[in-house]
Amino acid sequence: MAQRTYPNITTNIPQPYRTADTFLATSTRGPSPSSQSQFPGPRDESPRPAPRTARPRQRIGFYDRNQPHYGFTNFSSHQVEYKGKIYPTSEHLFQAFKFMDTHPELVEHIRTCSPRPRDALSEARRLKPQQRPDWFKVNIDMMDEAIYHKFTQHKELRDELLATGNAELVEDSPVDAFWGIGKDGRGRNELGKALGRLRDRLRRRTTLD
Length: 209
Prior knowledge:
CATH class: Mainly Alpha
Radius of gyration: 35 Å
Organism: Schizophyllum amplum
Protein name: NADAR domain-containing protein
Number of domains: 1
């Protein structure tokens, strides 16, 4: 006699809610692995843990003289020694780099023109026709060099920089969209990035020591 078949209409019905007819239709010859797999037990409705979200990276701004971390700016009054000569600030040294290989007399002029970093900047701008022709290809490297000498010669600055952990460092300048973030906050922040690179360099050096 041909075996009677039953439509598979209860595949998704959990065990406790099956009718008697359904039970008979699926168990006349006893349970089998295939029949058991067709009717799983009740679903686990326990709540699942919420997915982890990344914590936003801390930002540390610097720019104003009366605010924390003013020493991170090139205008802070930290002298820097470079090749046996003292520069009043790292801004003096950075501006002098524009003439270092071509006009040593202008380097000395920038170094001694005034103790004020803004005056060194103004003089370098006035002498722009004499600056090295590849300046805008090397200016970021020269900034790395200037701040390296500044922070390695002033332990309190080095410790302050290392204490920032992994925070993003931001020169909050409203007038400079290259070294800072500019008026709209979308500037390149190249000084902040340079300080981040220096922090990594100092951290590796401290680990080796």
